[in-house]
Write a structure and sequence with these properties.
Strand order of the largest sheet of chain C: 5-4-1-6
Oligomer: heterotrimer
Chains: A alpha/beta (516), B alpha+beta (57), C alpha+beta (415)
Order of helices and strands of chain B: EHEH
Number of domains of chain C: 2
Radius of gyration of chain B: 15 Å
Strand content of chain B: 15-25%
Distance between the termini of chain B: 17 Å
Number of strands of chain C: 15
Structural class of chain B: alpha+beta
Largest sheet of chain B: 2 strands, parallel
Number of helices of chain C: 14
Strand content of chain C: 15-25%
Radius of gyration of chain C: 20 Å
Distance between the termini of chain C: 6 Å
Number of domains of chain B: 1
Structural class of chain C: alpha+beta
Helix content of chain C: 25-40%
Order of helices and strands of chain C: HEHEHHEEEHEHHHHEEEEEHHHEEHEEH
Number of strands of chain B: 2
CATH superfamily of the largest domain in chain C: Enterococcus faecalis V583 domain
Largest interface: A-B, 68 and 46 residues
Helix content of chain B: 25-40%
Strand order of the largest sheet of chain B: 1-2
CATH architecture of the largest domain in chain C: Alpha-Beta Complex
């Protein structure tokens, strides 16, 4: 039975809703594969590569819904389409039961909420500028989750925001905290006295979760988007956010989380930091402060949070490679490969781009070049993939919501002699998948079993960004991964170091010696 | 409106895009109005034209 | 730099302050300056060759009524030979329901809006019920009906207006709206109010009892939609106030001719933006079905352009059933959806179920393009090959003309 497809004209649904539909259809008997996507150019490519494109789907416009299924029988196809119709009908009824007519534009929403002060925007990147401009022009601060936004659009938006003295958090801002309330992907953390400026959503999540683990909290976490510190954007929002936190009475210390800024931007940031009469911690992953530079420079997200804790409590910071070196040694010893066996390389599968970048920075000094889609060579024995990068998210939900792509790659790794260690992150919190450990644990189990059948051993090492207050619950998620045989470390940095040790046990004296 | 209109002030949010984010904010007792957004008609250049011809431009 | 917001506020203000009044009747030849063998038709420009059956039927009727030909066949030949000039009603400040054919000898209403200084025209009516030119009828009853209107009814109306002065349509329409008319597919209350207004003056103006009875039957009995021509004239007079308003993205006309749907936008003047006329979704009289229907036709979408008809669905529990809306909640939702694409609301026409919020007014092409919501048009459905109405429903016009208009607007007002 070939592919069957139907196009529903002018029927826009957001990608999270459509993911739910596709999942439901795939679970039906006789359905081998199912796609529920809007007819964007990127999704047409996805349909084609999945073998689900038909002449009819090719005609679909971005506002048209495409349902395509690979089914065993015509009846299974009909049943799938009927199930999809029922799903949308149910979704519509659930909305109508609220008794409200939803506004269709921001202007219309503002008539309902005239004193709104923030717009959270997560439309496809091609339309993000229009919506964000509209919001800024009406005096709203903006949290812009959308990715795939052209750089020139970002520059225009931020220039306008600076003129109006409004925060434009993003584009590509995954996480923010305002008054302790999380926006986007956010862990449930206590409100506290540490303010953050973050060019990375997961970086901010990692710091906020670590602060929570240490008994501190976040006042505000202002996201700025990954390109803010580029020459072109010039740190526009970082500078404005620093100003806001410097004046904020609830903030005692400030943490800046970013990749290395462009040199001319760095000097502007340094000048701003030097003028602030609050302690500032800089975590520009891959850069170290020049001698005499203002602020406290740290090299990992974990250290950034720990430094903030130390400063607000008036303690000294003493970074260590592992929280519990003895435990790491014992766990790795138990996993030692049989003598003479050839161990493959590292495969890092990350949902957090900054966690991927940080892992690469930690691993390269020990392992040599690590290939990745976030810098470094394109191919090599050791590879790290940021599954949240634009090329993986066009037209589909972020891998923190749609975990299927990562789980599939973990399973593939089980069949690959090239892979000896899998390194993963798991990011919990609001808006993320409700139980990501469950399917990841199953994939790890399958992969390890497959490797074992082939006479290889596959080590899985991970870390979980989360808190006990998150909807998923940190301890349960860690336990699920551990039960699948994964080694779970308390931070992504520690997990990366453990991965290096697993690949090169001879590094143990250097790494487990205590100080790094 | 300026920087002081957000930090330390009660959040009042208009959500444009993923409905999930509106629901998460509601769960935090934040006042939020969700916009039933659809992509504008025509080519992406029409979106640029709409931005140029916007009321407050 | 064009200030669209200011221009659109001005457009809304003009639409809201319009107070159209019926000031006279006359022949199109004089009132519209319609000379030679020229016929006006509904909708955007169209040639004889492209016209649908109802419009061709109405053209035959007009040609025979004018005496340019004696038979339908000769009328066809004359039109096919290019001996008749066709132009949209809208090009002369006029509007015509359904086929909307107006010839030089057609008696027309004159409606003026003295606040904005505009006027508009439409035919008074077009033959007795069942033989209406607007649906393409061109038999002897139709021709006789047109002559009777010209020779008996129109002069009587003129006498009444001369003695009584202009009849205020704005307040009459507001009153009818409160009585459940949305003034496009339902004009029952308005027709009754007009008949009440005319009754005593007609008794005074018409000497022959036989003529008086016929005129009162014509106005008050045959047809609940009698007032539609007045509604449309009032809406046209009001919307003419924004024609050519520089920098405004508000729609100044929407019209269909059974083949094409077209819009004009205030800031782009008299240029038409065209798409295909839609298939009307609706309810059919017994014995008819969708396959019998002509595509959407008529200038009556001027009602929606003015903020009535489909825009005002929430005022009219009776109409939502006629046009096939599932429930009154649907009708309310339709009006609320229409508000998403309008500049504002007209306080002249309060909607009680929506807390006396005015009807959504001033369709903004920017909002149409941005939301993908197109104006909903309440409409009668014409038979595609016989002279009669076969149902009523909601036409959803194509989006493309709105997108094209926005692009043209952008070119006319470069940044």
């Amino acid at each position: 039975m070939p592919v069957r497809a139907t196009v529903r004209r002018s029927f826009y649904q957001d990608s999270v809703v459509l993911m739910g539909v596709a999942l439901e259809l795939r679970a039906l008997p006789g359905v081998r594969e199912a796609a529920a996507l809007m007819g964007t150019p990127a999704n047409h490519e996805l349909l084609a590569s999945a073998g689900l494109a038909t002449p009819e789907t090719n005609e679909a416009a971005p506002e048209d819904l495409v349902l395509a299924v690979d089914v065993e029988t015509a009846a299974a196809g009909d049943a799938a389409f009927a199930a999809a119709r029922a799903f949308f009908e149910e979704h519509r009824r659930a909305r109508e039961s609220t008794g409200r007519v939803l506004p269709r534009t921001l202007d219309s929403a503002l008539r309902q909420l005239p004193d709104a002060n923030l717009a959270t925007i997560s439309v496809p990147g091609a339309y993000a500028k229009l919506e964000a401009l509209t919001a800024l022009r009406r005096g709203l601060h903006v949290f812009l989750f959308s990715d795939n936004v052209p750089l020139e659009d970002e520059i225009e938006l931020k220039q306008l925001a600076v003129r109006r003295r409004l925060l434009c958090m993003g584009p590509d801002c995954g996480t923010a905290y305002i008054n302790g309330i999380g926006l986007g992907f956010a862990n449930v953390v206590p409100r506290g006295r540490v303010g953050c400026v973050a060019a990375s959503g997961t970086g901010l999540q990692a710091v906020a979760a670590r602060l929570a683990a240490r008994g501190e909290g976040v006042s505000h976490g202002i996201g700025v988007g990954g390109r803010d510190l580029s020459v072109e954007v010039g740190g526009a929002m970082t500078l404005l956010a620093l100003e806001a936190l410097a004046d904020d009475a609830s903030t005692d210390a400030i943490v800046i989380i970013s990749k290395p800024p462009a040199p001319e931007v760095l000097s502007r940031i340094e000048a701003a930091v030097g003028a602030i009469r609050k302690p500032v911690i800089l975590c520009a992953l891959g850069a170290t402060g020049r001698p005499g530079a203002p602020g406290t420079w740290v090299s990992t997200l974990e250290d950034a949070a720990d430094a903030a804790v130390a400063i607000v409590r008036g303690h000294a910071l003493a970074p260590r490679a592992f929280g519990d070196p003895a435990a790491v040694r014992d766990r790795l010893a138990a996993l030692a490969s049989p003598p003479g066996s050839r161990r493959g390389g590292l495969l890092g599968l990350f949902t957090g781009g900054t966690l991927a970048h940080e892992a690469r920075l930690i691993l390269e000094p020990w392992l040599g070049p690590v290939a990745s889609n976030v810098g470094g060579p394109a191919a090599g024995a050791h590879r790290i993939l940021d599954l949240g990068a634009d090329e993986f998210t066009r037209g589909r939900p972020h891998p923190m919501i749609d975990v299927s792509a990562r789980d599939a790659r973990v399973r593939e790794a089980g069949a690959s002699p090239e892979v000896g260690v899998i390194l993963v992150d798991l990011v919990l919190g609001r808006a993320a998948h409700p139980d990501p450990a469950r399917s990841l644990a199953a994939a790890i189990r399958d992969a390890r079993a497959a490797a074992e059948r082939a006479g290889r051993s596959l080590v899985a090492i991970g870390s979980v960004v989360g808190t006990e207050s998150d909807p998923q619950g940190l301890a349960g998620q860690v336990a699920a991964l551990e039960a699948a045989g994964a080694i779970v470390l308390p931070s992504s940095a520690q997990a990366a170091r453990a991965a290096a040790l697993a690949l090169r046990p001879e590094l143990a004296p250097a790494m487990l010696g205590g100080e790094r | 409106m300026s920087l002081t209109s957000l930090l330390g002030q009660p959040l009042r949010v208009v959500n444009v895009g993923l409905e999930l984010f509106a629901r998460e904010l509601e769960a935090d007792s934040v006042v939020v109005v969700h916009v039933d957004w659809r992509p504008p008609s025509g080519s992406p250049s029409v979106a640029a034209l709409l931005a140029r011809l916007d009321d407050a431009s | 730099m064009v200030n669209v917001a200011a221009a659109n506020r001005e457009a809304l203000d003009r639409l809201c302050r319009a107070r159209p009044a019926w000031t006279g009747v006359g022949l199109a030849r004089e009132a519209l300056g319609l000379a030679g063998r020229t016929l006006l038709h509904a909708g955007p420009p169209i040639s004889w060759q492209q016209m649908c059956w109802p419009m061709r039927g109405a053209v035959r009727a007009a040609i025979m009524f004018e005496g340019w030909a004696r038979s339908a066949e000769d009328a066809d030949a004359l039109a096919a030979a290019g001996e008749v000039t066709f132009a949209p009603c809208h090009s002369r400040g006029a509007v015509g329901p359904m086929a909307g054919i107006i010839s030089p000898g057609t008696p027309v209403l004159v409606v003026e809006d003295r606040v904005n200084g505009t006027s508009a025209f439409s035919f008074i009516a077009d033959g007795p019920w069942g033989h209406q030119l607007r649906f393409g009828a061109h038999g002897p009853e139709t021709l006789a009906g047109l002559a009777w209107i010209r020779d008996v009814a129109a002069p009587a109306f003129q006498t009444v207006l001369e003695r009584e002065g202009p009849i205020d349509l704005a307040s009459l329409m507001a009153q009818a709206l409160a009585m459940g008319d949305e003034l496009h597919m339902r004009n029952a209350a308005a027709t009754g109010l007009l008949a009440r207004r005319l009754a005593a003056p007609l008794v005074a103006a018409v000497a022959s009892t036989k003529d008086l009875e016929a005129i009162l039957r014509f106005v008050a009995r045959d047809n609940d939609q009698f007032f539609l021509a007045w509604s449309m004239c009032a809406a046209k007079a009001a919307t003419r106030s924004i024609e050519g308003l520089e920098g405004s993205t508000v729609v100044s006309a929407m019209a269909r001719n059974g083949v094409l749907f077209g819009i004009r936008v205030a800031g782009t003047g008299d240029r038409w933006f065209i798409g295909s006329a839609s298939v009307v979704e609706g309810l059919y009289f017994p014995g008819f079905r969708a396959s019998d229907a002509n595509r959407d036709t008529g200038d009556s979408a001027i009602m929606e352009t003015y903020g009535l008809g489909g825009m005002a669905m929430a005022v009219s529990p009776a109409v939502h059933k006629i046009v096939g809306a599932k429930s009154f909640a649907d009708a309310l939702a339709t009006t609320q959806e229409m508000a998403e694409i309008c500049v504002g609301a007209n306080p002249l026409f309060p909607i009680a179920p929506l807390g006396d919020q005015g009807t959504p007014t001033g369709i903004d092409i920017r909002k149409v393009v941005r939301t993908g919501i197109v104006p909903k048009i309440n409409t009668a459905i014409a038979h595609a090959s016989a002279p009669r109405m076969i149902g009523a429903g909601i036409a959803t016009p194509p989006l493309e003309p709105f997108v094209d208009a926005l692009v043209a607007f952008g070119e006319r007002y470069p940044g």
